[in-house]
């Protein structure tokens, strides 16, 4: 496949057509491909007045949307999923160019497919009134009412998929949504909302791209009932403070520095592929990716060798080249974080098994897949979230010590345990502090299973019926 945008190749031509519908007639800001430096397109730049107008429109549209039956809203979400699938290739092409992720593997086409899957699954959830008491003392029934306007603030790593995680449950329960995309990946979210809105009533979903002041105003707006945010803990704290004066409901999915623990009965060859992709999915730019791996001394060399074999065989390059599975970091700032942490690790005496030597003259924000062994458990590369294609591998001799290290950080989004004995793995998993602990896999989210963080990785959950409750006001009627 050609890597040039706008050629006669079907997917890129359709992507160009979609892009033309979301770009401003004048003004705006240029967005560049993180792999090549080429211009992708122009994003509109909304200001505070635009944000306020969007909230007014969403608030006006919300009562009629909420008045539809549950079945009618479900049908609308299924129609939206149909629209995503009909435009899947052009959405994936645009996503690949703007975010940098390759088309294949667990990347752009996977992300667009996940958007449709989350819409369909969420559309079919039911959240019915619950009879709490019905006896001689009286009758009490718990109902779930829509909140009103939900403000969604999304990240740049999975811009389309995470937007749907925010949009789908909110709409399902009768809310309307004003979404502010990341300034790094606005075109992907604008294109997605353009497609979704072909199946939705006017103004139930409005995207407002802009800089941080737009997100700040969304967080403070008195007519926004709830904020859903996925992103860094630092930014999340600012949003929490901004929303405090209006006592908004919030769901915060914040940073993660997920630990994986390999037990001494694991099979290194059998788990190597899943270990690698647990850490390197989306080129490591995933909140719930494995960021640090603890391996017993008895298996240490075997696990390192097995991971090295996988890393050597995994191609990295421009996303539109079909053979690539790893891409660039999305932005220069994140590249510098990764480079700083790997450089510090090397200077400390840690052993680089592969990678760690980026081509500083090449175009794009590429950082090679990097495995770092023989590293101190308190090294910055271990205790700070690198959010890139790097995995530090820490040796341990005592399992209790490994569990203590895993639990020692403020972030507690996910974790994993790797073992040939699932029961033993589950016992170790029960000792870990995290929103989710996976066994013999990592980062495997499912639209049916609630997902959220502990400690400074956030609060509230997404997905499943529990996720629907997060975008509702519980209302008890007693008599």
UniProtKB/TrEMBL annotation:
Pfam families: Aldedh (PF00171). Keywords: Oxidoreductase. Residues 29-475 form the Aldehyde dehydrogenase domain. It comes from the Bacteria. The active site is at 253. InterPro entries: Ald_DH/histidinol_DH (IPR016161), Ald_DH_C (IPR016163), Ald_DH_CS_CYS (IPR016160), Ald_DH_CS_GLU (IPR029510), Ald_DH_N (IPR016162), Aldehyde_DH_dom (IPR015590), LUC3-like (IPR044086). SUPFAM superfamilies: ALDH-like. Belongs to the aldehyde dehydrogenase family. This is Aldehyde dehydrogenase family protein. It comes from Nesterenkonia rhizosphaerae.
